[in-house]
């Protein structure tokens, strides 16, 4: 529902309706209230942004004609909006694409009626008319075909230089403000535009009838609106409208400031997210480079191991082979001697050679039996490599999401009381578990844990929970708020202040505060994904 003062102000600026004009009443001059000779009061035009004075329709690129205000706040000529409604199933703003009429509304009414139902920006309409007035070649209202140089802001008459001097000398117009057309701003021309009676268009309006939302002259106020209950002087109605507009301006300015502040906060968060992504990407690159180095070292180690194993078998086989080759050469030589003796030697020599060769052959090792070790295969790393690949693949593809505040989260628990005056500098190893404190965190006391060794370069998560491990509520042991750390030597810290705000520390610096959703009491909670060595540091009560 529109504010009544806003509606009144719109009606004040409405153009005259020719059909609403009635004939001038006869013999009623005596009823016309005595003229008060009050000059219309116009507020001083305040500084506006350039876009506030832009009188060009963004669709037709001409000065606005009956500018209508869309729900999104953008302005368009009424005819331009009619064309948009007529051409689109779902009419949308040509600038921001926000819908302003539903298809159902479009089916019930014609485009012209829908466009008429939108509020008119009468101020922009006045600015556009003033811009049109200054855009055309002005001619003096009195002289024929003489170019006008000035305009009277009260009479709205264009005047040449001669008529300007005469206009200033006339007693009835000597107090009027006459300005040069070359210097008058559009907004000044619009602000000083007189408001005429809706019926008697040649008379300035002096009253405003709220019952009919129309500005009228004194004669109409007596004749046509005598029975109306809300007929006030125009100055009072304008003052009321000004007060309403001032109030709206303050409210909108406050909302705008809050929105800009919120947008600024979001920009900071976006910057933080971008920076976090860069840091996280660097961590991924560092981890992958480290993994590549480990893989290369592992590759060299396995290759060396494979080479040593195969070299050992190769040397053993070569030794056996060399021995057999030597024996084969001996057998071949004696075979040649025997064959020659059998074919060539004379009988006495053959007998002697036969005896000699028999003794020699009997002395040779004629058994050909390979050692069992010859059949042994080298120790290969293929199966071992497959197992390593399977384990690494499982480790890398396993979801390692940060802890969430879900009741389904149920990790193994290793309850301890890590912090206390008697447990300072306790060193412990943990792997795949969640460590909690027996006692709730004391206000304004800094609890710290140092990450000494991180075998897999994974994250250690630290934060608080509303339950301790000793309560037995394993499903309730979840993070209410948390941070993460992975660098060896880092010191993570937690502190609850007197306002029950949770402060996160890293290496002695406050890195963030959680103000909502912190349970009371709350317990320290640390999650270890892989094997890590940590040291519980003494309590720091300097915040007391």
TrEMBL record:
Q: Which GO terms describe its cellular component?
A: nucleoplasm
Matching InterPro entries, A to Z?
A: B30.2/SPRY_sf, TRIM45/56/19-like, Znf_B-box, Znf_C3HC4_RING-type, Znf_RING, Znf_RING/FYVE/PHD, Znf_RING_CS
Task: Supply the Pfam families for this chain.
Answer: zf-B_box (PF00643), zf-C3HC4 (PF00097)
The RING-type domain, residue ranges = 57-97
Which Gene3D superfamilies does the record cross-reference, listed alphabetically? 2.60.120.920, Classic Zinc Finger, Zinc/RING finger domain, C3HC4 (zinc finger)
Sorted keywords for this record are: Metal-binding, Zinc, Zinc-finger
Tell me the segments the record calls region Disordered: 1-52, 395-417
Q: Where is the composition biased (Basic and acidic residues)?
A: 8-17, 395-410
Q: Name one GO molecular function term.
A: ubiquitin protein ligase activity
The name under which this protein is listed is RING-type domain-containing protein
Organism per entry? Pomacea canaliculata
